[in-house]
Design goal:
Length: about 375
């Protein structure tokens, strides 16, 4: 049996999942047990943000109203635009919308970066609409961009009808899809910096003047490891929360849709799954990997994982680890130290728990006097 070094070991045993079915008729909720923890929500997902692995789920693919969690996609597209710090005057029609706002008024000057803050912190519907019109010319054209991006991300249970998330029969997402969106959005440094703040001071208006926008995500105040992401509420969607937290090198994303007591629920789930996950060394899968070199001063070059070969695993995942290594049959000299030569993926069952590029340990020169081609390769093997 392969030896594995476990850097930190969480709780030894998982408690079997159970369920409770008593629910108030006016609230279509399902009370689900995550171990001994009761999760009152219509849909729940706990995801490992590093690899997209689902650690716990209840109705992860059910299509549900998702309220202002919609603005994760709106903000991501906004923050991917060029020239985001230039001021422009907001469209007067776009900002005439019900619900929460960042306080935009007719004639206000604002930037796209500020609109991203306005939709992610105070959850401004006016900010989402203003950005959509500025970027695409109309909210309908921007919604087409949103749906195109959802398709690129492989989201099978998400469809947008507006940039803000107000209820619409054809506007929906799922807990799994929202976790995927959050994971991708957090890779955007500007997005991650915004959602990590409890408040932010901006200057916009006519003329621009300083004001403070406050984050609706109270988990940032209550849980020290929280790093974002987005709240949402409508009558149809109920309370929605997509959150992320990082602790001991592990990053998790939790989604609850149509739930009660979201902040405490997320904190309990984080504490449970951070405890259950152990950092496991995967060095055994990257040892002794090398590639033959044609025409070099050495016949082979060793490779190692560019990323630290460690995965946060549940106990049940330790004993079913396999790897898939992709390396060329040979490479031609010269080879530069740190050059990417292949990749490795490690799986627990059918779930990928680690992936990394494989890079050269050292540089391999190609002296001019050396034989080249196949003869050089054969000679190098016996050198």
């Amino acid at each position: 049996m392969l030896k594995r070094r476990i850097y930190s070991l969480g709780l030894a045993l998982l408690v079997l999942l159970g369920s409770v079915s008593s629910v108030a008729a006016e609230q279509p909720m399902v009370a689900v047990m995550a171990g001994e923890l009761e999760v009152n929500a219509e849909a729940v997902v706990v995801m490992d943000a590093d690899n997209g692995r689902i650690l716990y789920a209840q109705n992860p693919d059910r299509r549900l109203a998702n309220a202002s969690t919609t603005k994760m996609m709106t903000a991501l597209l906004t923050l991917e635009q060029p020239d985001r710090d230039s001021y422009f005057v907001v469209d007067s029609d776009a900002i005439q919308i019900e619900g929460t706002t960042m306080g935009l008024q007719e004639g206000d000057s604002v930037t796209l970066n500020q609109l991203a803050v306005g939709m992610l912190l105070p959850s401004g519907n006016d900010a989402a609409n203003a950005a959509a019109v500025q970027i695409a010319g109309s909210t309908d054209a921007f919604v087409d961009m949103m749906n195109a991006r959802a398709a690129e991300m492989g989201l099978e249970n998400t469809h947008y009808q507006n940039p803000h998330g107000l209820d619409d029969a054809w506007h929906y997402s799922s807990a799994r899809d929202l976790a995927i969106i959050a994971a991708e959005a957090l890779e955007n440094e500007d997005f991650a910096n915004i959602v990590n703040k409890e408040s932010q001071r901006l200057a916009f208006g006519n003329p621009p003047y300083n004001r403070t926008l406050t984050n609706t995500n109270k988990l940032l105040e209550e849980y020290p490891y929280a790093i974002g992401v987005k709240t949402g509420y409508t009558d149809e969607a109920g309370n929605c929360l997509v959150s992320a937290a990082e602790k001991d090198g592990k990053r998790l994303i939790i989604v609850t849709l149509n739930s009660h007591d979201t902040v405490n629920t997320h904190m309990r789930l984080y504490e449970r799954y951070f405890q259950l996950l152990a950092n496991v060394s995967l060095e055994e899968f990257t040892q002794e990997l090398s590639v033959p070199v044609v025409g070099g001063n050495y016949g082979r070059v060793r490779v190692h994982a560019a990323q630290d070969p460690v995965a946060a695993l549940l106990e049940r995942e330790y004993d079913s680890l396999t790897s898939r290594v992709e390396l060329p049959q040979f490479v031609y000299a010269p080879v530069q130290q740190g050059e990417v030569l292949g990749n490795i993926k490690v799986y627990s069952g059918d779930k990928m728990v680690f992936q990394s590029s494989l890079i050269a340990d050292q540089s391999i020169k190609a002296p001019a006097r050396e034989k080249q081609g196949l003869l050089g390769f054969l000679a190098s093997l016996f050198s």
